[in-house]
Amino acid sequence: MAEKKLVEAITSMSEDFAQWYTDVVKKAELIDYSNVKGCMVIKPAGYAIWENIQRQLDERFKATGVENVYMPMFIPESLLQKEKDHVEGFAPEVAWVTHGGLNPLQERMCVRPTSETLFCDFYKGDIHSYRDLPKVYNQWCSVVRWEKETRPFLRSREFLWQEGHTAHATAKEAEERTEQMLNIYADFCEEVLAIPVIKGRKTEKEKFAGAHATYSIEALMHDGKALQSGTSHNFGDGFAKAFGIQFTDKDNQLKYVHQTSWGVSTRIIGAIIMVHGDDSGLVLPPKIAPTQIMIIPIQQKKEGVLDKAYELREKLGSFRVKVDDSDKSPGWKFSEQEMRGIPLRVEIGPKDIEAGKCVICRRDTREKVETALEQLEKTVEELLAQMQSDMLKRAKKHLEEHTYTALNREDFEKIFQEKTGFVKAMWCGEMACEEAIKENMAVTSRCMPFKQECLSDTCVYCGKPAKKMVYWGKAY
RNA sequence: CGGCGUGUGGCUCAGCUUGGUAGAGCGCUACGUUCGGGACGUAGAGGCCGCAGGUUCGAAUCCUGUCACGCCGACCA
Fold first, then answer.
1. A131: how many CB neighbours lie within 10 A of its CB?
2. Where is the Aminoacyl-transfer RNA synthetases class-II family profile domain (predicted)?
3. Is the CB of A117 under 7 A from strand B?
4. Nucleotide with C1' nearest the A92 CA
5. Domains of chain A
6. Global pTM value
7. How far apart are CA A360 and CA A369, in angstroms?
């Protein structure tokens, strides 16, 4: 997409992608930095996106029987330590509360980095019989992880997310729920966020601390880096055994429950930015955009112009629509609308009013069309739908064009030296090999996709017999 | 936690080398002219120069310490 640069406030992607990202986040007024490193002020434009994500994901959750709850934000140290792998995974990045008021606490507490231990502790007392199962709970909350390096949305010390925690009578049911939630995430990404994802399983090395199996959806950003955009874990009965979550089954036997957890965080807003954004700023898919249409009056002080703009707003009442009646110049308003990623812009001025028409400009293509005012509602509806599907198509094309195949080590290394994106390659399944790849090539396994292909019989790196096809990439 | 860098009106920064009591552009406020891709004029408001010590007749400027933030690495949603 060759674009004329209209505003200098945003660094171009090709010049410096990281700076571009920061500029977009700021100019779209999604966040402000705060006084605490890694903690951000999410401003109305950013929070409204999150609210839309919440609302639409929550609907999908509830359609599968999920119930929302809320757990405390503090975890006593003794509780965190109950599951060995889990505590080892999270200990380096938890924040501790050591005092209550002026007095030291008897036992220090961490601010939840995730709530497995809290749910487990609760389930231990709440589940006694197979009749109490399944538990399909979710909470919307924030968690804290004391990251060393932080970036808005992608890695913040406090972030908003949802974490679902379920307990089931059988391993099969837990596995089904794990996959079901991953599918919900993947469908949501494609249908609402217009982001195509690769679904697959994480390797032993990359899986969640304490999990039996971790699944993820992996998206490809515009710079060719991967972003894990949602995860779903099957815990088997590992946590149940560590916490003693047992129930009496129909056969009068005492059994351990099988658990899952799954989450999506505000990080996904980073994905929206980096998949769809361009050199003029944010581009929001219509289904997630807090404002879908911005009406911009031209020569708004002329008699009747503003009235007409408000009239159009009424007419478009079934959409999320606003009128920019600030006293900035039209050019300024155009740029604002573009930086904020508002999908459609309706321009209405004296000439249009006289001719009974208006100009509509699409954010993604910047294509302008004229439409008769009687046709406005219909045209807008079509354009929004078209834009939503075009954005997914474009993102899919980018994903396909940046997915490569390597059959041997030489190609594998060469591709990552010359290009950015996903590389599909066969792997032996051994952690040592995976670690060597990371060490030598600065590349990690993203996932073992559900859609397996047999590219060759040998591991791309070490040459041993291949077990799995893996997506490799550089990740955020 | 390592390496680099930055803290001066709301924002971006100049001033610091060579100490003399604070500047620019943008933004903001008021009024007027403008308005189809970041318009313009006039007038105005706004700063214990990150913080704490020290040197000095005098510190934004020199010295010491400290805090914060940013970027790049190692670790992670």
1. 10
2. 44-285
3. no
4. B75
5. 17-276 (3.30.930.10), 293-384 (3.40.50.800), 403-473 (3.30.110.30)
6. 0.94
7. 5
pLDDT of A233-253, one tens digit each? 999 999 999 999 999 999 999
Measuring from the CA of residue A368 to each C1' atom, give the nucleotide at the shortest distance: B36
- Residue A212: both structure tokens together: 């039996």
Q: Where does the pLDDT of residue A40 fall: very low under 50, low under 70, confident under 90, or very high at 90 and above?
A: confident
Query: A180 exposed, middle or buried (CB, 10 Å; 0-12, 13-18, 19+)?
Result: middle
- Per-residue flag: A357 CB under 7 A of strand B: no
Stretch A286-300: mean pLDDT, rounded?
A: 97
pLDDT, tens digit (0-9, with 9 covering 90-100), for A349-368: 999 999 999 999 999 999 99
Contact between the CB of A31 and strand B at under 7 Å? no
pLDDT for A8: 65
Q: Write down which residues 263-302 in A have CB closer than 7 A to strand B.
A: 263, 265-267, 280, 298-302
ipTM above 0.95, yes or no: no
Structure token pair of residue A178:
């794990």
The tokens 């979710």 sit on which residue? A138
Q: Residue A113: pLDDT above 80?
A: yes
| Residue of A125 and A12 predicted with greater confidence | A125
Q: What is the 3-state secondary structure (H, E, C) of chain A?
A: CCCCCCCCCCCCCCCCHHHHHHHHHHHCCCEEECCCCCCEEECHHHHHHHHHHHHHHHHHHHCCCCEECCCCCEEEHHHHCCCHHHHHHHHHHCEEEEEECCEEEEEEEEECCCCHHHHHHHHHHHCCEHHHCCEEEEEEEEEECCCCCCECCCECCEEEEEEEEEEECCHHHHHHHHHHHHHHHHHHHHHCCCCCCEEEECCCCCCCCCCCEEEEEEEECCCCCEEEEEEEEEEECHHHHHHCCEEECCCCCEEECEEEEEEEECHHHHHHHHHHCECCECCCCCCCCCCCEEEEECCCCCCCHHHHHHHHHHHCCCCCEEECCCCCCHHHHHHHHHHCCCCEEEEECHHHHHHCEEEEEECCCCCEEEEEHHHHHHHHHHHHHHHHHHHHHHHHHHHHHCEEECCCHHHHHHHHHHCCCEEEEEECCCHHHHHHHHHHHCCEEEEEECCCCCCCCECCCCCCECCEEEEEECEC
- Whole-number Å distance between alpha carbons of A197 and A200: 10
